[in-house]
Amino acid sequence: MDNSSSIIENRLKRLREKLKLKDIDAVLINKRENYFYLSGFTGSSAYLLISQEDAYLVTDFRYVEQSRNQASKYEVIECNGNSIDALNEIIKKIGIKKLGFEENYLTYKIFSEYKSSLLVSELLPFGRVIDELRFVKDEVELEVIRKAVKIGDEAFAHIIKVIKPGIKEIEIAAEIEYHMKKLGASGPSFDTIVASGKRAAMPHGVASEKVIEMGDIVTLDYGCIYNNYCSDMTRTVFVGEPDKELLKIYEIVKKAQYEASTSAYRGLKGKDIDNIARSIIAERGYGPNFGHSLGHGVGIEIHEEPRLSIRGEVIMENGMVVTVEPGIYVEGLGGVRIEDIIVINDQKPEVLTSSTKEIIIL
Ligand SMILES: [Mn+2]
Asked: Which intervals of the chain form a coiled coil (predicted)?
């Protein structure tokens, strides 16, 4: 058995324990990130139907060969018509009565179709079980994420040589994305944020036509997708003589980021870690200027659980991968955000992002 198939085997085993606990015969999975996690199939369309004994993957003509190669633990069923019919064939064959479904990822229309057409006696919401299985990353996932983060770091080393007065934000974004692709990324993990000057006061200022000017602060927030996993980082740099207040803000954000990321221990809740950064910023008078959460899980999705926010109730466990990204934003002046990705450990977390957080003046 090769490494990847034993990983899938293990994920299926954990899923089947949950099925048993919930007293459900089988679960139907259609969310891309979840079927990828449980099968290894990377195509854009599939249903998984998983019971204690069986694992089926239903897909169409385009993906039959690919899914047979990638999802070796599954019996692949080709279906070029109505997938409900193909699912019903399986339901009848293995005798599924209670079927779990992903209620958080279904439209009302699809749910109605399941309800009226699937030949089961009960349709039961499966909750966030699969999302929860994905909270803690295994060693193979961590290796891929480390590489994705490294690509982001290398793009940063490159881009600080490119940023200068006269270049547009959108050109900087294009250069970052091109560089990440050259390093093996399949694409950006979200729309690259390049927010300069007063635009840096917008936490999600996607790159615009604005030209970088002398004296601008520039926030760069970007990431890539590498082998189906995301990275995410933020650095804020100065072009020319920095504004005094922004320099002060930079030091506060840097301190908050450092304290929160080095204190993110196993056993703490997401909200405890959020509070470490939030109180440092509030004590220095910028509480109202830090309006977003401290961080989020990263993995197959760019934003996933666990959240580090004032409502974050998930308890940190070894192997969870989260961002730590405090920021301070002042309308009319600009803003600063600094973001690293960390892995929760028994001891101090492993900080994956290696780009400097010292002040950079270009
Ligand atoms: Mn982020």
From this structure: none
**Cα 248 to ligand 1 centre (Å):** 23
Beta pairing partners, 327: 337
Please choose, from the candidates 11, 47, 221, the residue with its C-alpha nearest in 3D space to the C-alpha of residue 133.
11
CA of 83 to the centre of ligand 1 (A): 36
Fold equal for 3-133 and 139-351: no
Residues 6+ apart with CB under 8 A from 64: 76, 78
Whole-prediction pTM value?
A: 0.94
- Cα 44 to Cα 22: distance, rounded to the nearest angstrom: 29
The CA 232 to ligand 1 mean position distance, Å, reads 5
- Model pLDDT for residues 304-344, shown as the tens digit of each residue: 999 999 999 999 999 999 999 999 999 999 999 999 999 99
Render pLDDT for 215-274 as a digit per residue (tens, 0 to 9): 999 999 999 999 999 999 999 999 999 999 999 999 999 999 999 999 999 999 999 999
Domain 139-351 coded CATH 1.10.3720.10: no
Ligand 1 centroid from CA 222, angstroms? 8
Instruction: Write down the domain spans for the chain.
Output: 3-133, 139-351
**Cα separation values, 135 from 232, 296, 319, 331, Å:** 17, 11, 8, 36
Q: With cut-offs at 50, 70 and 90, classify the pLDDT of residue 3.
A: low
Decide if pLDDT at 2 tops 70. Answer: no
Q: What is the rounded CA–CA span in Å between residue 289 and residue 278?
A: 10
Rounded distance between C-alpha atoms, residue 237 and residue 68, angstroms: 47
- List the one residue out of 268, 247, 280 whose CA is nearest residue 322: 268
Measured in Å, residue 306 CA sits from the centre of ligand 1 at: 12
Considering only residues 348 and 124, tell me which one the structure prediction assigns the higher pLDDT: 124
CATH architecture for the domain at 3-133: 3-Layer(aba) Sandwich (3.40)
Note the pLDDT of residue 1: 40
243, 333 contact by CB (below 8 A): yes
